[in-house]
Amino acid sequence: MVRPISTEVQNSIKLLLIEGLSYSAIQKMYPNVGLSTLSRYKRKFLGDSTSPKGGKQSKISTQTRNYIAKNFQNGSLNGPKGVQSYLLTHGIEMFLRGIRHVLKSEGFKARRKVKTNFVNTTNKRKRFAWVKKYQHYTVDDWRKWGFSDETRINMWGSDGKSYY
């Protein structure tokens, strides 16, 4: 049978848990108390309060992340390189890999921006009139036509991706 812990030790552990000390720090003070005992006491004394997430803290604060996301959407910051130069002006040195990870966690995806034609009201009217004029053409009639979409084909790789 396991020996019970004295009430003095229980009260001191309770105070340390309320202060927010980690389990390892408490174990250094009381080496005979196990992790399961500490977690059980935490549940008993503090309820189901969530413990802080472990791991390394981010170099970028939440305010800076929000600023980067806002300026990324409106086009002020141009890609991860633009974010890197912005962070350097604020004294934060980060690799591009980390910046890409931050952008992905903010919901941005790297993909080529689709260019669309600008269609104003006069062009809309002209296009609609053209469609009305040729709406009764058959497949054989359309085979007489030749359309050129002026597709650009890269031989030596892509021109890069933009985040949006």
TrEMBL record:
What Gene3D superfamilies has UniProt attached to this entry?
Ribonuclease H-like superfamily/Ribonuclease H
InterPro entries according to UniProt: RNaseH_sf (IPR036397)
One Gene Ontology term of the molecular function aspect? nucleic acid binding
This protein's superkingdom? Eukaryota
In Swiss-Prot or TrEMBL terms, this protein is called: Transposase Tc1-like domain-containing protein
